[in-house]
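User: Can you help me understand a structure? I only have the sequence.
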Amino acid sequence: MFKLKVHWQIIIALVLGVAAGSALQSMLGEGASESSWVEICEFFGKTVFIGLLKMIIVPLIFSSIVTGIAGLSGVKGFGRLGIKTLGYYVLSSVLAITIGLTVVNVMKPGLVDGKPNPEVKEFINNNKNFDKKGESVSKDATGLREEKHALGVVGDLAERMIPTNVFKAASDNGAMLSLIFISLLTAFGLMAIEGPGKEAVVSVIGGVNKLMIKVTGWIMCLAPIGVFGLMTATIAQTGPSFLLAMATYMVTVLIALGLHFFVALPLLLVLLGRVNPWRHYRAMRDALLTSFSTASSSATLPVTMRCLQDNAGVSKRTSSFVLPLGATVNMDGTALYECIAVLFVAQVMGASLDFAGQLSVVVLALLTSVGVAGVPSASLVAIVIIIQNVAEDQPWGGGAMAAVGAIYAVDRILDMCRTSVNIFSDSCGAVIIAKSEGEQGVLTDADSGTASGIEAEE
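Assistant: Let's start by predicting it. Here is the structure, written out as tokens:
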């Protein structure tokens, strides 16, 4: 098996994990979550594989941003790259939210024959413990809080972006916005000074970046084992009964994600980047499979950078700037999912949101998707925040929290899918920006796994 390419190893591990998880679920039923087999699988999947990937997130992001910006010819070059990156993030996020809003209004997953889904409401009433599950998602991990800030979501984002303790923020995987802010200040500072001191610092940070990329390659050798453990544990703990009750909701989310993944983003590649989308799918297959199994944009970041540089031919200059920002700022799948989830909750609770209410959902989904950390199920707290803002003083607002708990029951499977969309959108942005910057060799030799753009740069 280890003679196969990494993506084939991961695919085989996914299939075997689904089979093993289904077998455990059929044998143990509701007791599968307490099984020692599931605990062992979670150990290899979460503790070992995802733990190793998260271990290198902070040094990788810091070194990537600093070396990427410090390597630019000047502030003018950075400004051009920054404007292009921001423009792409806004465009792709708006497209994703528009697709999600359209699909959920057409399919109306929370309604059956024009009335709130009776099966979902009954399940919510009979399983109050799901409310606790929905509320138990770590606020520290998401980087968001349920209490309202005096300046709203924007004020909360700004507060978390500026750390009071640089070293604490730089060592916290849940403080990605602060880490990016610190990295940008460091990079700008290096661009503003001259002399041997600057060269020494840039050289050290560049060496750290190369080291992290090398370590990423070693960690990926464990990918098949980690993916098998994650899939086995996930499938074993997902009961079939509630999946049937939530089938329409899940199909709605998957259709919307599929439209963005297979239609909107490839169109952006063709129209803005003038590249073949199929080549890009092939170049990013390792990152897509890893993101699907880990459900974590941040944990997949090292793999995404490796795929873009080695397979797609995007330079370190572009990928080191675009991807770390995208892992925190550009969450297409998350924004799309938040729109559908909030409107689904409203439909189940018998509420009808007018244009103004849905516009509020769109704006809040765009803002909170920026703040949500790239960790599994982090968007649930963002969904709670949106509901609290939209349903404030509404009769359906209080009971909506139980519906959020119900969403938690099927969130893992959908989280895996939307994380892949997040990763693919980031990579599409990097390719489009690289082409606009005139980089040679971008997706011209993806099938062979060489990256002429990187070879030329080095």
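Now, to help you interpret it: Residues 400-436 form the longest helix (37 residues). Strands lie at 111-112, 115-116. Let me know which part you'd like to focus on.
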